[in-house]
Amino acid sequence: MYYFAELVINGALTGLMYSLVALGFVLIYKSSGVPNLAAGAVVMVGAYAVWLLTSYGLPLYFSIPLSAAIMFVLGLLTERLLLRRMVGQPIIMVVMLTLGLEIFLRGLGPGLLGAAPKPLNLGIGLSPMIVGDIFINRAYFVGGIVALLMIGSALLFFRTRLGTKLRAVSDDHVSSWAVGISVERAIGVSWGLAGIAAVAAGVLWGSVQGVDWTLSMLLFPAVAVVILGGIDSIWGVLIGGLIVGMLGSIIPGYVDQIVGGGTRDVVTSLIILITIMIRPYGIFGREDIERI
Amino acid sequence: MFYRLAGVHHTRYQTARGLWPIPADRWQVLFLLLLALLAPFFLSNLYLGSYILPWLIWSAAALSLTLLMGTAGQLHFGFAAVMAIGAYSSIHLVRLGVPFELALLGAGLTAAVVGSLFGMAALRVKGLYLVMATLAMQYLVDWVIINVPAISGGAQATLRTPDVSFLFLPIDTLAARYYLALGWVVLVTLFFLNVKRTSFGRALVAIRDKDFAAAVIGVDPFRTKLAAFFTSSFMGGVTGAILAFAFYRAVTPEQFSFNVSIQLVAMVLVGGLGSAIGGFLGAGFVLLVPIFLTNMVTWLAAIGWIAVSANLIAHVPLMIYGALIIGFLLFEPLGLAKIYDNIRKYFLVWPFRHSRS
Q1: Can you tell me the ipTM of this complex?
Q2: Dihedral sign, CA of A266, A269, A273, A278?
Q3: Which domain holds residue B251?
């Protein structure tokens, strides 16, 4: 029973950290309808940025905001230079462009900075927290709290003036232009915000598993989170992350011993598949109605 | 004599609707085919075995995928899994004593049946969701292959392909394997070029343009989409089997991983969606250009023009490959086929440019 509770709690915390990666995906998709399959690589770049700044001797509390600023600008630039030209192209072009970006970044980061995993010490400590008889991974615990804070601030952000503009843009581009909202700027801002979320995800995941190219593989669970929660919903990110994390921890916890490992990817794939077959727009997503 | 449209006056619909209505194109195709047939006699084994042979086989794979993605408009990010099914089932069939010719057919059929399961998702969703669904299925197929010892031969195992013969000719030398691949790619190309002129091909195009609208004019989207997945997966399965027997000769699950699926989609897009020449050009470009450019960077570093660390050189192919995809999508979304088409149209009427219609 303790084993089960441990799996549930640690799974939920991992799931919250997945939703941090998924948050960037949703922010971009919501405003511009672009599926950013480079989300994993962007997280990797964010982690590399923090590692690079700290390796120059900057303290952590200074290098994290600085890399958030850098990633904001990089996000703006990506939107301006790459994605702006893809407006009106078929979805396969956008998907492949972001995948190409992912491949490029996966070569660039390790190529320039070395392929060996870099340690990123947040000063959290490795000893697990023990509540009752349950072991909780301390890094995951901090990560879960940061994720909750980020998702909460994203929810609050959509109530501000700029956030209202973003919601208008996500509703309808043409009507937003008509009332004087700069759609281009709103989409750019959403890319920048996604960059900031990527820094948070990169720092947390980098401290857990080291900074190297494997961070870009977070794309796959993040995709499961957004598909399950609804591809344009912030609440969906929260709930989807919790479900994906818990299922991805409970099922391998019991099944791995029987079939010999690696079932977490299978659970993630099955979540994607079953969601798409039953309710493609996810739990909280908006259903698209198509006309001829 | 340079005006290639000279003397081309079609008086019957049959000639006007031929595959290559212009004699110059026919001569070009014949010349290329002759060159391909004679290649083992004037190319060294290195070039034939490590450049031309994989290029031909991957062209066949790209053509199978472009039938689905370009002609029928169904996105597929799990095509490597389909090829893996073909490769593994052909090897197991041959090991069970089935003749190689039948094993190829069996590989195609197995791949087609499982590939139609991929198509089930296409009946429900399209666009981005179809990408995600096929991607998830790729992971599932990979996992099943790796974790079922009866298929992969145990964890981390490599399956060697048995010696086989095709129509009583033993497939043992490089030349024999080359001709096997060449025969298959010619077959696939002819099928691809001709399928567009059948009612099935036109139904596929109607589905691509708008499936609801196609349903209104009487094309059954359910049947057509499944048939598209079935046909394309059949070709992909046989290509996977030929890839295993003619090129790799020992298969591991990593040879058909998710990255290979992305590479196939990159071939199709860089070449140009839904064009036969694009399949060939895209496969060649995606396979060979990163190798060529990496060699150039290594050479420049060796003669001391640029300073590159060994670590960076190891990652240069990945960067070039990614930059290539981005560059093509930004600057020529219609791919190499469009570039080829522009050049061809220019020379078709050269030097009488004003006669271009």
Answers
A1: 0.89
A2: positive
A3: 20-257
